[in-house]
Amino acid sequence: MKTKKQGLIIGFILLALLFVGLYILENTLSSSTMLLTILKKGVIYALIAVSMNLLNGFTGLFSLGQAGFMLIGAYTYAILTIPVGMRSMIYQYYDGGIVQFAMPALVGILCAGLLAAFFAFLVGLPVLRLKSDYLAIATLGFAEIIRAIIQYEGLGPLTNGSNLLRRFPTFQSVLYPFAAAAICIGVIVLLINSTYGRAFKAIRDDEVAAEAMGINLFFHKQLSFVMSSFFAGIGGALLAMYQGSIQAATFKSTMTYEILLIVVIGGMGSVTGSVIASFLFVASSEWWLRFLDNEMFIGSFHMPLLRSGFRMVVFSVIIMAVVLFYRRGIMGDKEFSPTRIRNRLLNRKAGRNA
Amino acid sequence: MPDKMLELDDITMQFGGVVAVNNLSMFIDEGEIVALIGPNGAGKTTAFNCVTGVYKPTNGQVKYQGQVIVSNHPAGKMKALYAGENRDKYPQVVDPTPDKITRMGIGRTFQNIRLFKTQTVFENVLIATHLHRTSNPLSAAFRINWREERRMRELSLEMLDFVGLAAMKDELATSLPYGKQRRLEIARALATKPKLLLLDEPAAGMNPQETADLGRFIVEIKERFGLTIFLIEHHMDLVMDISERIYVIDFGKLIAHGEPHEIQDNPDVITAYLGVEDI
Amino acid sequence: MNGFERLFPYILAGVSVGGQYALIAIGYTMVYGILRLINFAHGDIFTVAGFFIVYMSATMPLVVSIPMTIILTVLLGFAVERVAYKPLREAPRMSIMISAIGVSYLLQNLMWYVTGGLAKQYPVIPWLSNSVTILSSTTKIVTIVTPVLTVTLVLLLLQLINHTKTGMAMRAVSRDFETAKLMGIKIDRVISVSFIIGSFLAAVGSLLYFTNYPTVTPTVGAMPGLKAFVAAVFGGIGSIPGAVVGAFLIGISENLIKAFGYSTFSDAFTFALLIIILLVRPTGLFGEKTIDKV
Question: Which residue ranges form the domains of chain B, and what is each CATH number?
């Protein structure tokens, strides 16, 4: 137990150092550098990936509905927080829109999560009884239905139909999304390590045995689904704040696939894996592989293949390689653990002395 | 007369045209060790599954400590196909999920070991303590339930100690040798605090020495935890050794019932297992 | 103009697009029946077939492009199975589905890269694109050809499945994978044949579909693919006639919805149908119930 407490303290110290480091970074680099963009987007994706991992990796429920709940979160936040003065301009086709009040950002974010969780509860009622493949398509279907409904012209006064929503409060500092994500991921980790988290893993490993040990499948599946969607909703709200404007059409199933692939690369069943993979994903797609998109000349030799879009092709090939050959992902189902690293170092020392 | 611990009345399980269990009626009194035997495919595990809620019986009912916990009658398509008698004898439908039945105090092990593959020995047992929790997800997440959590861990350690697996508690459950995995399954079932324990072929794959040890062990846990034991087994020495009464089924139907010595000499039983001799 | 005459062009369009969905749906249902895999990449293979012809017909006559497209599409389907699905046959079910998603992602990105993000125009196939007038509504010949061709191909396929040795092998494998393997059935061959047939039908479907809707973009196949999949689920996944029935139902319904003025919901109809069928009868219209042994 002592080593566990030590691990916790080390974890907290690292987290504090991280925040200090971010603060320094932010005040020394210009605000338009790639690094800060990557950090902001990366940590938001990290939260969303962890929320998906909770459902898919830890409870074994293959759901493809993430984009739908992110969408609900993003729109709830936007609709509730656009300043009243701006509404007539943004909702120009709908006479200023139905909602004529604005909430503070934090309340908006919370409502985003709650509404996403509520819809997840409704969707879960019929859908969670289905077998895994059918669960995947049903959740995919619901996500598309949600998207279609939000884009429906008839709901324009509320959602602005297929037009953009913007001018809602956004964040400046990178510390904002980091703090939000850290809190949310922290709660998820606490849940996973609690007795309920163990029940989730039992369901993932063997539903029949879990039931025989007294675990009610439907209740726990709903719990996992609702919690996962709550955080997906918050992630959606944060994403809206990051982008500055949102449009339902961008929350397609492709977004869910990307999150899923991030989770797979990081390791299904590993929170640290999802976090690491999120940053790798965002860095690769926004930054590192960018050079592959530019025409390149060596001397007067025009490099073939290198033009716009090549980066995503290389990226997809890398993902396929991981899926086929490194199925367990970066971390498998292990977490980053200061205690484990310490033990391994100690063992090595002991081995040398023996 | 006190209620029987477990009572099966006309339990029938039909899959399409196949009648796997055919009007099986039996009972177990509190504190007994009762065995259900029969050739392969006779319907024994199916009967277990009807009791624990994994299958919805086509007809019949199960009573536990005097209460009806499972009850069904042929309905829908099955009504037309139904091959048994007692068609209208059980009009009400009581259809609990398996976890509800476990919470009532009926625990079980599986014929094909079903341990939680990604979990350690200790975690496997710890998971089985979840059903008696009183904390909600939020209080569990924020460790407000730390006392309950500690109790769950102590209980799990106690069970592991009892079956002799405490030393390997942090090993992956599937890394254990076969015989120990079976013990782990029993420890796990015990952690659900059952009053009635259903053991499905606990000695499968064991040699005579291990089987004898298991027999002693089963009697020990019965005494120690005040259990009633319902056993499916093929190892006849184990069955004859520890059972107080035996039910024999073949092709889903009850063909004999009595004490071990009666069953051993019963010609119907011998025929069922060995076939009729060609004269 | 009476009600029927007003609706008739929509019904025609529905029957036509329904046939195209059916050709795609068969690929989904066959693969699921045998491998229990939702081949997320199938819709993208359909789109790639569209692009094959676009690029080839720029330099070769249609007489060559069309058969070449079909051959290349079949090869692509075969290759995808060998490279991305075969290695994961022993892996847990989720892994192979994730692989399918990965392949879909890769194909889409490849198409973006090759086309530079510009929509391409489908070449005009003579005769199929000719206009014809039925009951005072003008349409293309392809609209008539599609259902006829679809039904013919389906009947041929059913003949194959029910009256040939290969077909019997396919039915055995979809019944019980393990036992079929133990009985000596060459599983690899059966699976490859399914993918080949599925890709062939998708290629034919793309020929017909893009003649009607000639703009080809990398994501244009996603919707038809999804709708075809829903059709397969509706009909009972694993049942070819079921998939065809489902496809025509979806095609006709979505066009009727457009006829009554609710175009934005024509896509949502498909999803609503999916949800309903999964709730009411998950095994689909003609599907079989299976009981898990404990």
Answer: 1-105+194-279 (3.40.50.300), 111-193 (3.40.50.300)
